[in-house]
Amino acid sequence: MDRKYIWILSLLIILSGCGRKVKLPTNLAEPGGGTLDTTYLPVGQAWEEANGLSFDHPRDVHVGFDGYIYIADTGNDRIIKLDQTGEFIEQYDGVENPRNVSQDRLFRLLATGDSIIYKKGTQDEDFVSIYVAPDLIDSVHHVVMDTLISGTDTVISPVDTFLVDTSATVYLGIAPNPLPRSGYAEYYVCDFTRSQITRFRFYEPCTTENLGALIPKGSEFGKSYYPRGILTFLTATGFNLGFCHSLSYLSVQILDGKDLYPVIPWTDSSNIYWQGTFGQAEDLAVDEDGNIFVLDSEKDSVLKFSKNGAWILSFGTGGSGGKEFENPKGIAYYDKIVYVADTGNNRILRLTRSTDIPK
Q: Which of 95, 111, 216, 228 has minimal Cβ neighbours within 10 Å of its Cβ?
């Protein structure tokens, strides 16, 4: 065949494919993992005690800016500090019923316990409370009625009215603004009762200012519906804020810390927004590639997504085995290790990709 006709035929073949629809990428970076991931396996033995005392329903695990592992040992009213091998370093008291633990850029430890925010500076021996939330008061007057029987007549008359305390504040998470601050620190707290994430400003040595809702109550992007877990992490241009809450199709949100705009767009590939993906998203962590680990306390599992919200894999199931959970409440990530506060089994599990386990 004449070479000219071969070139013409080749050009026609190439052009014939140009009419197909191609999914254009978003403005986000490429996913950090991708669908060709591997399974997660336990690393060593589970951590079940510290300082000679068994864990009692630990609700959170956190890797601080200092590289140490901090555990909110809820039933024992203590915060534990371990090194990355699980070796006990210190124990801190002063927090009643700790639900969450975190650390800011100046290495101050933060914790929440029911309706109280606690702080422990580097020079403090134990935690001290820096803010006590007011209870919510029902605005409806309840009337006390008095019944009088006189002969055949019954007379009911009001004798008093009062307000009823219907619900106490419950703080389920706390995270700092991870950017360096001058003269103060900002903390973001999951106020489960008011269905919002509240912003606080802390000034040394002990002044705390409630700045109101950073993330108000609502069921759309940039709003919260009974928040449970919160995370802040640095990015190339600032920081992101992620949180879990009790809304099925927006159980997890990742927002830009500057303008609170959603980082993950709503697209067909954003499996993280699919209704029914989670039973109850409880807490989240992010690895160095931007992959997102979401702890599901109802399904007793961890779901891993790429930074654009595409599902990669999940691991864990109900039980007490090496990669099984019972009502887990806290998750953290550091240096290829996923840490899970396996609350119902009174332990901390460490897991990593099977390809990362030393041979």
A: 216
Report pLDDT digits (tens) over 220-248: 999 999 999 999 999 999 999 999 999 88
Q: Count of alpha carbons within 13 Å of 179, Cβ hemisphere only? A: 13
In a domain, 92, yes or no: yes
Phi, psi (deg, nearest 5) at residue 270:
-85, 75
Rounded CA separation 146/100 (Å) = 47
Residue 18 lies in a domain: no
- Cβ burial of 170 (10 Å; 0-12, 13-18, 19+) is middle
Q: Write the pLDDT tens digit of every residue in 255-300.
A: 999 999 999 999 988 999 998 899 999 999 999 999 999 999 999 9
Q: Tell me the C-alpha distance between 269 and 250, whole Å.
A: 14
CB neighbourhood size of 102 (10 A): 25
In this structure, are residues 330 and 17 in contact, taking their beta carbons and an 8 Å threshold?
Answer: no
Q: What is the pTM of this model?
A: 0.83
- What are the Cα distances from residue 39, in Å, to 114, 159, 297, 309? 36, 67, 20, 19
Sign of CA dihedral 107, 294, 221, 229: negative
